[in-house]
Amino acid sequence: MIERARAAARADLDLLSVGDHHSTGPFAYVQNVPIMGRLLAEWGDGPVGCLFLLPLWNPLTVAEQVGTLAAIATGGPFVIQTGLGSVEQTQALGFDRRERGARLDASIDLIKALLAGETVSDERWGLRDVAIAPLPPEGVEWWIGGTAPRAIERAAAKGDAWYCDAGADADWAAAQMRVYLQACDRLGREPGTMAIRKDVFIAESHDEASRVGDDLIAGGYRGMSRGAVAYGTAESVAEELAVFGEIGFTDVTIRTMAVPQDAAVTSIELAGRVRQLLASA
Fold first, then answer.
1. Residue 232 φ/ψ region, left for φ over 0, alpha for ψ in the -120 to 50 degree band, beta for the rest
2. 23 inside domain
3. Is residue 48 included in any domain, yes or no?
4. Which among 11, 102, 152, 253 could disulfide-bond with 272, CB atoms 3.0 to 4.6 Å apart, if both were Cys?
5. What are the backbone dihedrals phi and psi of residue 59, each rounded to the nearest 5 degrees, phi first?
C-alpha cells in the first residue's frame, strides 16, 4: 500500500482513499485509520479520505479519528465515504442487520455535528455531552454509497456526493443515476459530486492487459461483468471510463485489479495518463 500510494502521488492523481472491512481473516486487510496515517507521509498535499462503514462504528470514535487525520492532511476537505457494509460484517460485530439503516442515518447526523464543533448526546451509543478536538481545518465531504433506492435517497438527502458501486456497468449506472437525480429534485437539493468506483488494470501493452483482465473475469473476479471493469492501455481505459462521464458522473475512483505488485504499481502510474486524457476530453 505504501508503494502504491507513492505511485499515485507520482501519477498526480486527485484523491487517495482507503477502504473499511472487518473480520477478514485469514486474509490480511490493513485497517483504514492507521494505514492512512502512514500513507499521508507519501501522498503530499492532495485530498484524502477513508471509507467508514458507520453502522459498525461508534460515532464519537469516527469523528475523533477523522478530526486527527484531517488535521495532519493538507490539500482540501477530508472525504468520508460511507455505506451500510455487508450483513456478514454486521453480524460478526454483534449488530442486528435490521438496524443498519437506522444506525447509519443517526451516525451521519451525530458525526456531522461533532465535526462542526457541537456538543452532542445520544442514548443509542451512550454519548453524554461529548465533543471533539481537533476539528478538520478544511472541513469534510460526505460521499454516501449505495445503489438501493433507500441508499440513493440517503445520498441525496444527507450527502455531498453519491458514490456508485464498483459492480455497476454503464446501463445499470445510468439507471441508478436517474434515481439519484430524481431524489435530488424531489428533495429540492442540487446534485453534488457523482462518483463511481471502477476496478481497473492498465498496462503498456494492450495484449498484456487483455490477457490478465480476461483471465480474471473468466475466473469470476469479484462477481463482476466485463462491463463493470476497465482494462487495457491508458488510451483504451480512458475510452471505457469516459462512458461514465457521458452518463453524468463527475468523478471516477479506481481500485487496481488483483495483479502482482509490480504490475499494480505500473497500472497506477499509467492512471496519470488516463486522468490527463479524461480531463482533456
1. left
2. yes
3. yes
4. 11
5. -60, -35
User: Would residue 57 count as lying in a domain?
Assistant: yes
Please list the alpha-helical segments (H only) found in the chain.
Answer: 2-10, 32-43, 59-72, 87-92, 100-115, 149-158, 170-187, 206-218, 234-247, 261-280
Grid cell in block for residue 196: 463511481
Q: Is the pLDDT of residue 62 over 90?
A: yes
Q: What is the mean pLDDT of residues 133-160?
A: 95
**Is pLDDT of 25 > 90?**
no
How do residues 180-204 score in pLDDT, each as one tens digit?
999 999 999 999 999 999 999 999 9
Rounded distance, CA 184 to CA 115, Å?
A: 24
pLDDT digits (tens, 9 = 90+) for 84-94: 888 888 888 88
Question: Whole-structure pTM over 0.90, yes or no?
Answer: yes
Identify whether the C-beta of residue 240 lies closer than 8 Å to the C-beta of residue 230: yes
Judged against a pLDDT cut of 90, whether residue 276 lies above it is answered with yes
d(CA 95, CA 274): 41
Report which of 100, 103, 65 is spatially closest to residue 86, judged by C-alpha positions.
Answer: 100
The total of structural domains in the chain comes to 1
Which residues pair with residue 255 across a beta bridge?
A: 199
Write the CATH number for 50: 3.20.20.30
Handedness of CA 197, 200, 202, 206 (dihedral sign): negative
- 145 contacts 165 by C-beta, under 8 angstroms: yes
> How far apart, in whole angstroms, are the C-alpha atoms of residue 104 and residue 137?
24
pLDDT of the residue at 75: 85
Which pLDDT value is given to residue 60? 98
Q: What's the whole-number average pLDDT of the chain?
A: 95
